[in-house]
Amino acid sequence: MKKIKLSLASQIFIGLILGIIVGAIFYGSVTAQSYLQPLGDIFLRLIKMIVVPIVFSSIVVAIAGVGDLKSVGKLGGKSLFYFIVVTMIAIVVGLVSANIFQPGAGLNMNELEQSDISSYVKTTESEEGKSFIETIVHIVPSNPFQAMVEGDMLAIIFFSVMFGIGIAAIGEKGKPVLQFFQGAANAMFYVTNVIMKFAPIGVFALIGVTISKFGLASLIPLGKLVITVYGTMIFFVIVILGLIAKFVGYSIFKLIKNLKEELILAFSTASSETVLPRIMDKMETAGCPKHVATFVIPTGYSFNLDGSTLYQALAALFIAQMYGIEISVMEQITLMLVLMVTSKGIAGVPGVSFVVLLATLGTVGIPLEGLAFIAGIDRILDMGRTAVNVVGNALAAIVISKWEGNFNPPVEDQVQKAS
């Protein structure tokens, strides 16, 4: 008999479906959650264990290969410009969608269940004193080892870039150090592939816990919001990101197909971190130079969260509509500008979309209490916006590579394009 071998994407998808079934069967069962949660937590901890070593070693190797501060500065400038433009488009798409479909209009708040959002409020209060300028200052770590322990990605990227430039500057003396980090990067990517064998079990456990906690029935009262959010995100990926991809001579469908395993995994876990190492590796394989893939993608995790900012704009107007508050065009423009700043100023904070909304709603007179009504389904919405964030950052690596004139797809891709 021929042995059936399932791809990793198929295994993860099966884990997702089984998790939904088990979660629905054991809805409300604390016992089931107590058995599943440790499996999910172990998988997430395994991923977090490898993220910092991979990002640090990969960026050091890539930047040392470039070895030019001016080139690195140009790369950073282009990346930031692209992130700002696409984020602005995502916010506009979210606002337009909310105005057209009015997901919060006519909703009876008495039928909705309120969730506890005190933990998000505390996080927001701790972040409110930090201005955008202070956030920029915070990128420069006073202690790089502390930044690594805390997982402060922007500070890690900054130190990695400076360290890589330093290795390049000392020439032959830096080669042993460079070889060490090259070996470390290769070893960590091997470890990543080993950990990914556990992904189907991790996905099964995490989605099972989510469904058993909230149940599929929790989506019904806010069904219009869920449909609007997912419909808008699909439009954004296929049309907006699709046009950007077409402009640089790439296909968004080809990108999605290439990332199918990572997208299923990111969607199931609602965590971009779970796929960061593999996204960098895959975009390098797709033709992006190592220094672009390893710089743009981790940086994009803080500055280019397309799915999150789109959702934040849409959710803000949803809450206003739910309370019957009219938000004028000027107030929506203000909301857009504030979101541009707050989404960057507190990037990387747990529950970032909720924290950003809490820091933003008050500026245009929208009641913060409205977030308590959608907190219960936030995990379901977070799954979708995480997948959009992954596609957006993978595409960003291709766009910047093309902009730099260094995109070199595999030979078979070039042959297919020519034919």
Binned, the helix content reads over 70%
Q: Would you identify the regions where 5 or more consecutive residues have pLDDT less than 50?
A: 122-129
Question: Could you tell me the strand content as a percent range?
Answer: under 5%
Shape: globular
Q: Figure out the total of helices.
A: 20
> Cα-atom Rg, whole angstroms?
22 Å
- What structural class should be given to the helix and strand makeup? mainly alpha
Q: What are the secondary-structure elements, in order, as H or E?
A: HHHHHHHHHHHHHHHHHHHH
Q: Describe the biggest sheet?
A: none
Mean pLDDT: 84
Oligomeric composition of the shown chains:
single chain
Number of strands: 0
Structure description:
With 419 residues, the protein is an all-alpha fold. The protein is 75% helix and 0% strand. The chain has helices spanning 8-25, 30-66, 69-101, 118-128, 132-138, 144-150, 153-169, 175-195, 199-214, 223-247, 252-258, 260-269, 276-286, 290-303, 306-322, 329-345, 352-360, 371-374, 378-404, 411-418. α1 runs parallel beside α12 (260-269), α5 runs parallel beside α16 (329-345) and α13 runs parallel beside α19. The two termini are 39 Å apart.
